[in-house]
């Protein structure tokens, strides 16, 4: 019996579902199910009854569940009272963040995590959307904050939140005095768009196609984040779109308008599929879920 088996068994019991437990553990459903089967084989008894409504503990399963909780509590006490928290014993985590995510989530969230879990040493890396995914697959990053859509065959993904995008119009532009904008207002306008390393690049083009407009798109490899888009839009008297955490910033020289057809910027937590989840990674993921009020 391993601690991983103990942890997963308790998680399945508390979730009441192997599927939900696999999401919370950032593992495939098959991996969690196989862990339970292996535990049952090792103990020589059936722990769970499975049916379409979920799982039910057998009498032996209930006993094992209570004992496994004691094991995990003992493990936590041992970790607190040993040298795990010493600088030489810390676990280093490399976290990749798509550009713009840190501003949306807030650096204070990570500072609080570091204070609460001194045994984890995190290093944050701002990167382009596609680079974060590539480096997760290459194990350069342990965990990534990525922009949807994300290939679920490559990653285990936990959706975090989504923001509506708004049109940003600068003073001096013909639309600045409008009270609202329509699809017709956006036809033949000049837009700033991030380069192809950003998911926004593809989302914006798909949005334009959806509503039937063909704008003049100023596309530059240097335009990889919203702050650089903003500067270029001001210089070129162009329009650009930004998520609500940018659009809510008020200034006398810029206005934010709701789009005639919504477009969203969605952030998710991602780990390479079937990557071994360390104790530090699990604490990090659980902290993010708790701090963002996610139940799964």
Tell me what the structure shows.
- The protein has 12 helices and 11 strands.
- The protein is an alpha/beta fold.
- The protein folds into 3 domains: 3-81, Orthogonal Bundle (Arc Repressor Mutant, subunit A), CATH 1.10.10; 84-161 and 267-291, D-Maltodextrin-Binding Protein, domain 2 (3-Layer(aba) Sandwich), CATH 3.40.190.10; 162-264, D-Maltodextrin-Binding Protein, domain 2 (3-Layer(aba) Sandwich), CATH 3.40.190.290.
- Strands 3, 4, 5, 6, 9, 10 and 11 form a 7-stranded mixed β-sheet that branches. Strands 1-2 form a two-stranded antiparallel ribbon. The chain has a two-stranded parallel ribbon with strand order 7-8.
- Helix 9 links the parallel strand 7 (190-193) and strand 8 (216-219).
- The radius of gyration is 24 Å and the shape is elongated.
- The protein starts with a helix and ends in a 5-residue tail after the last helix.
- 30% of the residues are buried.
- The mean pLDDT is 88.
Q: How is this structure best summarized?
A:
Helices cover 43% and strands 24% of the residues.
Helices, strands, pairings?
Elements: H1 3-15, H2 18-25, H3 29-43, E1 48-51, E2 54-57, H4 59-80, E3 91-98, H5 101-105, H6 107-116, E4 120-127, H7 129-137, E5 143-147, E6 155-170, H8 183-186, E7 190-193, H9 199-211, E8 216-219, H10 226-236, E9 240-243, H11 244-247, E10 254-258, E11 264-272, H12 279-291
Helix pairs in contact: 1-2, 1-3, 1-4, 2-3
